[in-house]
Fold this protein.
Amino acid sequence: MTALERFSTMLGRNRAGQGGVAMSVCSAHPLVLRAMFRTASRHQTFALVESTSNQVDQYGGYTGMLPADFVALVRRLAAEESFPEEMVLLGGDHLGTNSWRAKPGEEAMGEAGRLVEAYVRAGYRKIHLDASFVCAGDPRPLTDEIVAERCARMAEVAERSWNGAPPIYVVGTEVPTPGGAREAEEMKVTSVEDVERTLGVFRKTFERHRLEEAWGRVVAVVVQPGVEFGDEVVHDFQPVPQLARAILDHPGMVYEAHSTDYQSGPALRSLVEHHFMILKVGPWLTYALREGLFLLEQMERELRPPTPSRLRETLTGVMKADPKYWAPYYSGPPDEIEFKLAFSYSDRARYYLGRKEVVAAVDRLLANLAPRVPETLVSQYLPTQYFGVRAGRIRPTGLDLLVERVCDVMELYLGAGEAP
């Protein structure tokens, strides 16, 4: 069975009220991806990993990776983790005009078409079409008809670009900023009327473009279920039963929830029960990775190596030297900023984990903890992993302890999809 086939099975289970979840991992960090493969293996399920339109694009995005580069990275890590390639499902998130909003609409759409083509040709098969971004000269706000028209044009490109298994599509967008809300934003739970209008306009537009077959492969609509997070706050899911029932009137579809980071296990299960089958998670994973790194640095201090890593000092130093990824999100006096750089739920630190200075500090940290982290230090700083080490399930290396700290979060997501 392939990942797409397993996804379809999960979708059927979810619509039938029998559990079923697709944990959508939105991260390019290699250790997060390793954690995804290990957790998926333990649950004998597929691995869904997505890259966003500004993270990976035809010019490299902020990661410097083209779509084909990201695919190669994922496949290499899957092989290293002995995870079957056919069980990997690659998704493109918010594919559209986001990165080219400063351009006129038609010019931005040309770039969006090239973006979608690059993704589909590289092997991505779950495509989120999102043309909700206002471009130069556009009316404000964009009408549903304009958004649907632009998405249909991108779907035409995707339909011309695939070989092998055809892509599946997701439409719609959530209200808050992807990756965490800013304080001034107001969260608004999507209404049933909005869902019906969005799907109705999209269906008619796809039909006008003779995309009936592609419309039959639209598997989800993105809505705002009332979950979000900011620097120090998490908005927990509160069920809306009428919204859950509404999607059942649309055969073959479920909801996709963005910004589900930091939700509790029971809240994640409730999301699944209300037909939010696709649960996106990203910042929480690198937040957990950062937590693990800081805890390993505490262990390193106890061991007193001659050349300490100075990881936290290096990370915050790099962030201060180049504030473009966090300055629009963090505000307040210097002490408050200092705290947010390290501990904000928004986790803007994730944009800096790949910097060469930070990578060198992590490498030094792991070398200082080699070949084995003393069990007593694991017990002190990572007690959950300690019992895994004692049982022989987890190797007491810095690398494995980091990966397992991320697995803790992923276990909540995959556990939420177990049959009731």
